[in-house]
Amino acid sequence: xxxxxxxxxxxxxxxxxxxxxxxxxxxxxxxxxxxxxxxxxxxxxxxxxxxxxxxxxxxxxxxxxxxxxxxxxxxxxxxxxxxxxxxxxxxxxxxxxxxxxxxxxxxxxxxxxxxxxxxxxxxxxxxxxxxxxxxxx
Length: 137
Fold this sequence. Notes:
The chain has helices at residues 5-15, 17-22, 53-69, and strands at 25-30, 33-39, 75-84, 93-103, 107-115, 121-131. It is α+β, with helices and mostly antiparallel strands. It has a single domain (5-131), classed as Hotdog Thioesterase (Thiol Ester Dehydrase, Chain A). The mean pLDDT is 97.
């Protein structure tokens, strides 16, 4: 039985307290794809006055998780990396778009671009997932 990708992501979000804390909103979900947004808050700033890199990483990681799991095949991160391109500030609205590059039987490869409200790329994330062949719902 095939499950709707939106149902899987809805289930994930209901139980994902960290994505809820980030304030993530779902924009679009398709098989192997996700697009999400969030607003940067003051408690996300590091000692240098810009957004902590872990916030941008976690935001991209959530987009990655929603894209690689939305076929209802429980998938976990195997390898990830991020490049920070521009600083992110309080009040910035970020959008992360996860695009599937490869959908294999046991692995998947995804590229995630994070842009700000000025449509400028602020970070690029690459993630490889491992498919467990277990279901989420």
